[in-house]
Amino acid sequence: MLFVKIHSLTSNLMSKLAILLFGLLVLSTTNISAQQEAKDSLQTLIKQLRSTPNFSVKDTTHINLLNHLGRELRFFNTDSLLLLSQLALDYSKSSNYKKGESYALLGLGNYYSDQGNHTKSILYTKNALSMSIVSKDVALRLRAQNHLASEFAYTGDYAKSLIYYLEGIDVANENDDKFMLSIFNENVANLYASQNDFVQALEFYKKVKKINEDLGNESISAETMSNIASIYADTGELEHAMYNANTSIAIFEKTKKMEWLAYAYATKAKIYLKDNKFEWALYWYRQSEMLHKKIQDDRGEIEMLNGMSQAYLGLGNDAMSETYALNAYAISDRIKDMEGSKQCAKTLYQVNKNKEDYTEALKYHEIYQSLSDTLYRNENKKSLTMLKTKMEHEKQKVDLIKENTKQLDTQRAYVNVALGILIIFIIVTLLVFRSEKVQKKLNSELQKKQADLKINELELHEINRTKDKLFSIIGHDLRGPIAAFQGLLKLFKDGEIEQNEFMSFMPKLSNDIDHISFTLNNLLTWGQTQMNGAVTRAEVVALETVVKENIDLLSEVAKNKSIRLINHLEAKTLTWSDTNQIDIVIRNLISNAVKFTPENGMVTITAIEKKDLWQVSIRDTGIGMNQDTIEKIFSDNSTLTTYGTNNEKGTGLGLSLCKEMVEKNNGVIWVESLLRKGSTFHFTLPKAKNKYQRTA
């Protein structure tokens, strides 16, 4: 909080507010618009209120005006939004005015969102949402719900964003708030558009257009049309895009809605850009650029600057293209706009590739790929797909209810006719009885279908869990090295790098291929256990031999890091277990120990003989783990990927596979670890007894 002691700093705060209002009144004389008139009106009301006898800064009307003025200034003077929201929050707390406190918290959430501080923005907005639920302030709840959903979308967590949007839609429907219903549905459409599912996005926009027709507000309709224009531009339907863009521009120019007019100009420029008319694209981007000098809308400015960069790139002016792209990337990085950073990285990759600066090009290509993986991750796609399925199911339910209602209406008509004729009383009774029987049968069938649907859904979840884990590992641990290998080969094939440059990458490529081989081995083993079920074939196994073979296998990797591998297992350390499965366990544990041990370290393998079992321990002098990591590493659902002391990449699968293999052989596995001291992995296996040996 900016001001902690309210009473002792009241005069200082009032002087700051007076300076702010004076500055804003001066500003209003240079930028006349409908929005500016609204700000002028609010400033006048505040000034008049302060001049009244017995005025108090804790007056609820005064607090409400401060919050309202802060909202109006959001895209024109963001520092004023911070100051006004802090003042409103301090005054509200000192007077226990919960409504004013809630709206002030929401204002602070908006401020920190625009600054790219998503953690603080989410914190303030969640507090505002909680207070709105307690106070049953529906209007505030809907605004907070929408802002919170948007904030999660900015961080790339579309799944969580979708949850808050859907909750908002439910609340808006319950309270018949068509304005917020339009906004929520439009934002869900934008989520689909961000995943390039433009068909589903346009389906939601059809709903939004219908709601907007009921509202009859041309500004809201224009906002929707400008968004639709952007989607049509992405799908290549440029005539539809231009119609919607021009219509929205005409309305915004009339209503003087500056931030939306800037966006609409940029959208029109985007359409020309898609049509390769780069000069016209630059013309409309410059119109948007002039408006951005008068407003503070960083996210809109990112899209505008990157668009100008692409237009200059199309004209062959790489220097100007790079300048605008770097400016856009700097803003994106500052406010942590993942989507903006991704698009800027893509443009900068193209610019640096044209300049033949392949190091910079590769850097931005990796940034683009990493951000794409985050924004298009499985849980986001899965959440949106489940929403689509839910909507289809809801439509089927509505159709079924309509059909039932239609049948009931027909039956009631028969009953009404029969009531007038006493002679057919018996027939009417039979019809009613029959209708009830039909209704029960329909209800029974509906319940059965719902039960079947739930069973199918559970089976689908289980199948998806296995599939998602496989795809996650393939996407994170195999696709990256393979894509880098392909990219390097293409550069070499196209003659963009020389042979000596290509050979300098060989050590890294060798490590990547070793990692891919190791990952595939684990992946195929785990996939067999999940898909077909692995059969454990126990026999007498000499552990000292298995350990020696794996030390020989990993000796080259250890040698590169000057790590000593010490085998303390004595001869005839015999267990009753599956050789292949235990080989996988020992190989993964020794490989992990080498990976997380710094140079000149030591990895020691020992075995302690107990009554009916052997306890094998693999100790390293590595970096160790905290308690939170220890609790996660053996989880079946974990795909935790970690990096070794030389940046070696893990698979996110090895330890859960070790746990499964050890347990299949009637053993247990656990770990002891201290940060910066090292880790010791222990596991047990049954001893090979005489009866086992005879069976073998």
Automatic annotation (TrEMBL):
Keywords: Kinase, Membrane, Phosphoprotein, Transferase, Transmembrane, Transmembrane helix, Two-component regulatory system. The keyword Glycoprotein does not apply. Gene3D superfamilies: 1.10.287.130, Histidine kinase-like ATPase, C-terminal domain, Tetratricopeptide repeat domain. It comes from the Bacteria. The chain crosses the membrane at residues 413-433. InterPro entries: HATPase_C_sf, HATPase_dom, His_kinase_dom, HisK_dim/P_dom, HisK_dim/P_sf, Sensor_HK_Regulatory, Sig_transdc_His_kin-like_C, TPR-like_helical_dom_sf. Residues 473-689 form the Histidine kinase domain. SMART domains: HATPase_c, TPR. It catalyses: ATP + protein L-histidine = ADP + protein N-phospho-L-histidine. Its EC number is 2.7.13.3. GO terms for molecular function: kinase activity. This is histidine kinase. It comes from Zobellia barbeyronii. The lineage of its organism: Bacteria, Pseudomonadati, Bacteroidota, Flavobacteriia, Flavobacteriales.
